[in-house]
Amino acid sequence: MNPNTSNPFEFIYTQNQDKQRIAIVGEQALTIFNMVKYVLKVYAKKADYVTDDQLSTIEHQKFTDAPVLIVMSNQPTEGLLSLQFHVLIVTKFDMVILNNLADSLPKSGILICDDREPAASVAKKERADVLTISFKAYTHSTEREGVTLITSTNEKFPVKVKGEENLRCITAAKEIVKRIGVSSGQFYRAITEFDNSLI
Question: Is a pLDDT exceeding 80 seen at residue 93?
């Protein structure tokens, strides 16, 4: 890392300026990140990944020629602004930092927010040429056998996760991978095998 900066995100940016940069932040960031990473791995979609626990040694990170960089952070920090990301996914997070991150999105940027407060408040602010998408728990049924996703065309896909938070994460993950070339059908087939306890 450049000895003149203590911000690891500046280093990450300098190494990945030509990539689509995606930031997943907030309390549920890790689960969403794991779902996205799993689905991309199933379909051999190239991406580089950075998590909070890698930041202290980021200068040793080997970045590839993948077209996408996905950064996960559940620790609120203004340093994220240096990433200059194109897509921001937020769950519960520090309000001031959330607003600053959302305001930093470029034209044609995408903000994907939990529909609950405080993230919902950030989504309500108008930002020129930024697409804002709110997410909630994916439509589903709960039976004795487990949880089944129900698509808009009434297709059903049993999943190995349960609980509202995980179902919200599924909705967010689907929005992300759609922007990395994974179709809805591909996503459903992969997410049925996802088990967060194995990550």
Answer: no
